Amino acid sequence: MNRLKEKIKKKWKVMTGLTVMFVLVFLVGFAVKAHFTTKAADERTYTIYDSAGKVLTSGQEYTMRRLNDLFTVTGAQDSQTKYEWQSLKPDVLLIGQAGTNNYVGTPVTTTGTTGSIATKALIQGSAGLRLTVTENINGVETTKSFTFTINVQFSINESLDPTTGVEMTKVFDTDDRKAIIMDYHSATTTRLEFGTSASDPTQKTKLNFMFGNAQNGDWVSSNKDVVKVEGKGIVAIGPGRAKLTVTYQETGDTVSYTDEIWVYVRPEVKYESADGSGTANGQIVNSDVYSPSLVVRTGDYLDCQAKFESNPNESISSKLVWVISKEIGSKKVLIKDSLGNSTAEYKDDAELVWLPSLRKYQLKAKAETYIVQFFVAETYPGFDNLDNSAGKKYHCDPVNIAGGVQVKTNYETKNVTINIGGHYDLTNAFNISLSALQKNFSAHVNTNYDGNDGTSIIEFNNGTWNINTKTTGKAQLIVERHPNQNSETNIPEFNDLGDQPDGTTGTGVVYVNITVMQTFSMNVSTADMSVGSTQLLYGMFGEDTPTEADQFKWDPSDDSNNEYISVSTNGQYATVTAKKETPSNSPVTVTLSWTNSDGLTLTTTCKITVRKSVDKFNILPNKVSVEVGQQQIIATDLTESRNLIWLSSDPKVGTIEQISGTTNPSAMFTALKAGKTVITALNPDNNVYATCEVTVTQPVTKLAIGVEDQDTKQVTQYDTYTTTLAMKYVFMKAIYGPSDTTENESDFKWSVEGTSLSDVKPTDIAEIDSSGKVTMKREGDVYIKLQSANMYATCHLIIQSRPMTSITTDVTNLSMIKGDTYTVKTTYLPENASDTRMTWKSDDAKVATVNSSGVITAVGAGTTSITVSAVLPQSDDNHTIATATILVTVRERLVSIAFGSNAEYIAVGGSKTVDLRFTPSDNVNKNVTYSSSDTSIFTVTQEGVITGVKEGIAVLSCVAEDLGQSGAVTCMVYVTPQEVSATDFSITPSEDTVYIGSTIQLTPVFTPEDTTIRDVTWTSSDEAKATVDADGVVSGIAEGTTVITATYKDTTNDNKVWTSTCIVTVEKAPIYATGFEVSPTTQNIICGDEFTITPKFTPEDTTNQTVIYQSLDETIVTVNSNGVVTGVGPGDAIVQCTSVDGGFNATVAVHVDNAVDFKLSPQKRDLAIGQSFTPKKVIKPANAKKTATWKSSNTKIATVNSVGKVTAKKKGTCTITCTLTKYRQSATCKVKVGKLYSKVSLNKHNIRIGLNQSYRLKATVKTNAAKTPKLKWKSSNSRILKVSSGGKITAKRVGIARVTVMTKDAIHAKASCKVRVIRRVSSIRLNTNYTVCYVGRSKQLHAIVKPKSASVKKVKWQSSDKNILQVNGSGKIWGIAEGDAYVTATTTDGSNKRARCFVKVVEPTPITSIVIAQQDVTMKRGDSLKLSYSVLPSDNSDDIEFSSDNKRVATVNRKGVVKAVGTGNATITILATSGVSSTVNVNVVALNKSELNLRQYDSETLIVHGTANAVTWYSSNTRVAVVTNGKVVAKGIGTAYIYAYVNGCKLGCQINVTSVNNKNR
Predict the structure, then answer these.
(1) What is the pLDDT of residues 446-487, one digit of tens each?
(2) 496 — phi, psi (to 5°)?
(3) CA distance 687 to 665
(4) Can you say whether the dihedral through the CA atoms of 1448, 1449, 1452, 1458 is positive or negative?
(5) Cα(77)–Cα(40) distance, rounded to whole angstroms?
(6) Longest C-alpha distance within the chain, in Å?
């Protein structure tokens, strides 16, 4: 049964525990839920934005630029969410329900998941707008408040109802302000009228001010080619962008206002076909008026009707941006835009080219369907942002051309004639892009056309779709269209391609008929030559043609007597030599005729002009500056045409191309990027050249003004910036581009400009320094102007002032205790005042002071006023200053209170006023509270009157208001049944001293103690000396003595009178020390000397000037009670000085030196057992007393007698001490006793001396003997050197010997030195004594020493100035910086011979260009050629290196001599140290045979190895042998030479022809 009970009890406990745990979990879960629910409620986010979509943040200032605006809040989820809106300044801003025209100054409440409020501006000014959102979130009602400052200022009203061709919107969502968008129409005028009132509902389509009459404004357009102010409105003149600025002043008002707005005019595009045909020719093709696709041909025009009358130099890019794209499936792909963006695969398919002379765009495009768009400049968001699927973020729509632009093909049968060597491009022929041709067409050569296999005449390249010619004849290419067009192309009328002349349509096949003709021409058609120069001329055929030398005829020829030129002919080749200058415009014509075996004659000519040789010419000017993207004509001072070679040292900076047809040789320079390049004009006749340094600048093309946040350093661009005068400064920054501009920001000019109608000097409103820091001086508005080299930007700076109109403090009256502080709290109106600074002032700083934070400090007793005032900058006269005043009363701090007596006696029924005393006695709070411990014994009033009630004793307590209970005092009150008479009376003390100005208390003494009546009268016998008050307090007045008499009249004892006196002596009050110091604070003395410390008190007449002196180390100094310090031992010690009055401390640092300089010599000594020595006393000065005592630290090791003789006893170490008796100074000698030993060492172990020179070796002997042993010297080879008994060695002959030294004692210690006898250098010189070294370059100097047989020739190199020149150990020098320095070479063999070289270090002059006379050279294998080139400038500091990229073909040595070693191609690079290089392409050729032995009518083919170029063959004797395309045919017996010409290089093969009957070849 008991076990059952226990089980039940345990089960109950478990159930109870589970229940408790469940409850706890529930409570924790509920708390967590409540916690997260609250947190979720707290995190509800509301978004507030205006009608333009600008999001506002609580606390933000918002500039209202429209008379009526709408604010909306979103983010709530509860449909019953309440929104309470309130204008905090209804005289500036009214609010009302959205959608109504009812505006009020009282709060407006709306409900819903969103809330909106309409606002209406009444006047300029600032007003707070408060929004309170109350929403029930998960059962919790939450409230969130937002406050915004709405700045209402003069502005163009940014509210305009759209009309045809006119609207007002933001260009991009991120813009701060709206802009005006207009359409240009040539047939009609797009006009926007100015309004008279924004509040007039009939003028919503007019441009108004928020306040005022816009028709009375002074309106200015920045670009009259875009928009023009005309009458009382603006008119669109042409496409582009312009800034519209207005200045306005009310009649009778002295203040003017300025604002601005951008106007963007979209173009009207007109299509013009190049040949005048086409149904749409001359029509407007904007997509809103022309919806079908526009069918065009490449080369047609689009006229956007841009105007340039007012700004003829304005570029089209500042007006419009064009974009060409196409659709591939459902995706749009960019082809190209005018900003340089493109898709690599399609970038060559289409573009628009601006033709300035026609002021039109020309379309150059392959057949395809395109989307062509025109954006006004600065409105193009980029191609990737044209996708509106995620919401449109730009609002100035482009002008789209028609329903798309279809560019037609030229896909029809072609009949073409091509010369040999020419080619035919089918992409141009069909006007279809290469990729479209490859994806949609195939082509092949007809193998049976006009009886010919076309593949032998032409070849077709499918990779480029080019037709290349092989030989003369006729051929045909068949082009076939694929059945279906590729999905990536959209060629117009694709299925109709291949229409035939007979009317057959859409066959998809087209034929290209090719006729390939022979050509005959000269290698040059015109030549300009200088007198004395030569020119190689030769005839060229389009295809290999068998020729004979006698088939060619030159005119003039060898035998002609032409006065201007001579012509040396060799069959197909001729060399022309210029003899005399030809008349002006009368060149000599050289004619070459070729007649074949059929009698057909072909003729070609070359016109040659001979001029005087130019020895010198210049480019004028020799320095030019050009902007990126611009072109500049570079002209020489030559007066007639010359064939000059023009070169740019850095083609990446700019390119140069010769201009033909000019009277003076000129070239056109095109600037590509910022930098410098040298333009060289080279006369190839004699390598005379001229140079011009061109600096390419990148001007600023984008300029704006930003404001820098001083905390984040972030710069934000502003056209208009509004701030308050309280900010003092605005930090303007230049925002400019491009990033590679060469203009320096430091060269930009900042200035302040006023509005046109303002009568206030702009510099009276604000000033700006060269860094862009604006100092604001008063409210108003100005324009900040930033000027770069060729453009400027402005920012409209509006400075507002909202002064405080009232200030309220948290107290108006303040009672304080001296030393206390109080921080005043202030509030002000309006709450959004722009300048919240305040100044604080006290009328009496002796009573209370106040700091800039409003902290009042009580200084002294009294009353004063504290005034707080608003700080206002310079403003109009009607601005008043808000102030507030606080009345401050200061009292002394109550230190204590005390009863006049510790006991009061009073009879039952009697009353008396207790004596309560305050410290200090005046200007304190004397409010106290009295209490009786037992009111049945006595009572007390709050005035301190006690009344006896019954006999007994009780306690009287008093608590001061300022001290509280901690400062309470008590007094025993004795109540007697009747009055007790006195039996004796006296006062204490009976004699005392008081200081002038001080007091002492005299106390009456009654016998018995419980005497009831205690009234005492006090008098002074001489009140001029001391006075006494009714409480017995004596005050010292002047020096002297007086008698204070206390008179006591006991009314209980027949008015018996008692008297008692006190003799009071009045003395001057003692003067207490406030500071204390001593002199000196540091002192150096010697042992035995003394000095006295002088105390100095502050004030000097301190009464008690007693000082206690103490030495902190009496082993060094002692000091007596008078401050006399005596040195007793060397060292440093401190003397501490303490003033009795005040306990001030001061110290004197004393350094004690020995009286003499004393030491023993030696201070250490090794001594052999049984030997003795006497240390020597070394004392300075010499006349010092030398009497001393001697002592050994261990007499078992060594003893010392009274005269200092030390005797060694046994092995060990001890110290011998000598003490000077007079000076108490000691010196020691450490003695080490041991067995006898000796050691010897030499100062050198290995030396080198010159022949016939001497050197003395120094031996050092260490021994513990009493006397140092003598030495013996010896040479190992006396023929090389000898040594004296004193260690002097003399060199006799070159060689090596060893010198040994030995002690002459029992030890025989030895030491030796190896001596090398050398032949020294007799003289040294450098390979040059003057040289020039360039900064960053090196040179090698060489030292030459004599005699040549010198043993050591190594020298040490040194620079006199390592900052200018450095040299290494081998004589290689490096230029470090410009300047002069010497390099010195010094011999290292000990002869100290020197030679030096003066080195001038200068900045290097790098090569800017390498001009090569011939960039392509053909050489015969085995030949050598020295490269002909010129370097510019000629006085350069660079080295030239040569290299070949194919040494198997051609090698080049360091002198630039190229040797042809194998056939093929190689590139020779000429590289300057500066990095400038040029290359020569070398083609090495060779015949496969140099000699052939043939029989008549035999043939053999010669082959030219190493080239794929055309080879010209001819025979020196066609009667012996003829050659055709290398095939040699023997004709007659004899010898002839077959020549092959490859690019002017002549190769020869000797042909030996024997009889046909000759069997031996």
Answers:
(1) 999 888 899 988 999 998 999 988 888 899 999 998 988 888
(2) -95, -5
(3) 16
(4) positive
(5) 13
(6) 199
Closest CA to 479 of 460, 452, 464: 460
Q: Are 279 and 300 in contact (CB under 8 A)?
A: no
Q: Which residues contact 1113 (CB under 8 A, 6 or more apart)?
A: 1131, 1133, 1134
> What is the structure's pLDDT at 759?
61
8 A C-beta contact, residue 1375 and residue 1334: yes
What's the rounded Cα separation, in Å, for the pair 229 and 739? 36
CA atoms within 13 A on the CB side of 1382: 7
**How far is residue 286's CA from residue 1206's CA, in Å, rounded to a whole number?**
127
- Distance of alpha carbon 686 from alpha carbon 672, whole angstroms: 31
The answer to whether 296 and 309 are in contact (CB under 8 A) is: no
- Residue 501: the pLDDT is 56
Write out the two tokens for 658.
């010769």
Cβ neighbours for 1245, distance < 8 A, ≥ 6 positions apart: 1312, 1313, 1314
Q: What is the mean pLDDT of residues 695-720?
A: 90
Rounded distance between C-alpha atoms, residue 401 and residue 363, angstroms: 12
1099-1102, long-range: CB < 8 A, 24+ apart: 1099/1071, 1099/1073, 1099/1074, 1101/1071, 1102/1071, 1102/1072, 1102/1073, 1102/1141
3-state secondary structure of 626: strand
The stretch 1363-1371 carries a mean pLDDT of: 93
Query: What CA–CA distance (Å, rounded) separates 88 from 148?
Result: 10
Q: How far apart are CA 1081 and CA 1143, in angstroms?
A: 18
Separation of alpha carbons 1184 and 1224, rounded Å: 13
* Segment 254-273, tens digit of pLDDT: 778 889 999 999 999 999 99
Percent of the chain exceeding pLDDT 70 equals 95
Residue 1040 has pLDDT above 50, yes or no: yes
Q: 812: exposed, middle or buried (C-beta count within 10 Å: 0-12, 13-18, 19+)?
A: exposed
Alpha-carbon distances, residue 769 vs 580, 1292, 1484, 1503 (angstroms):
69, 86, 70, 81
Residue with structure tokens 């076939």? Answer: 480
CA dihedral angle for residue 574, residue 578, residue 581, residue 585, rounded to 10 degrees: 30
Cα gap 1059→1079, rounded to integer Å = 56
121 near 92, Cβ under 8 Å? Answer: yes
Task: Tell me which amino acid residue 476 is.
Answer: Q
Residue count (the chain): 1561
pTM of the model: 0.46
d(Cα 580, Cα 561) in Å, to the nearest integer? 13
Structural contact between residues 1418 and 1542, judged by C-beta atoms closer than 8 angstroms: yes
1371-1417: per-residue pLDDT in tens? 999 999 999 999 999 999 888 899 999 999 988 888 888 888 778 88
Q: What is the dihedral of CA 130, 134, 135, 140, to 10 degrees?
A: 140
SS3 of the chain: helix, strand, coil, percent, to 5: 5, 50, 45
Q: How confident is the model at residue 107 (pLDDT cuts 50, 70, 90)?
A: very high
- The whole-angstrom separation of Cα 143 and Cα 81 is 10
Among 602-616, 636-650, 884-898, top mean pLDDT goes to 884-898
Measure CA 269 to chain center. Answer: 46
CA distances (Å), origin 453, targets 324, 413, 422, 744:
44, 20, 19, 69
Q: Provide the token pair at 299.
A: 């080369």
Query: Residue 504 has what pLDDT?
Result: 63
pLDDT computed for residue 960 by the predictor: 93
- 961, 928 Cβ separation under 8 angstroms: yes
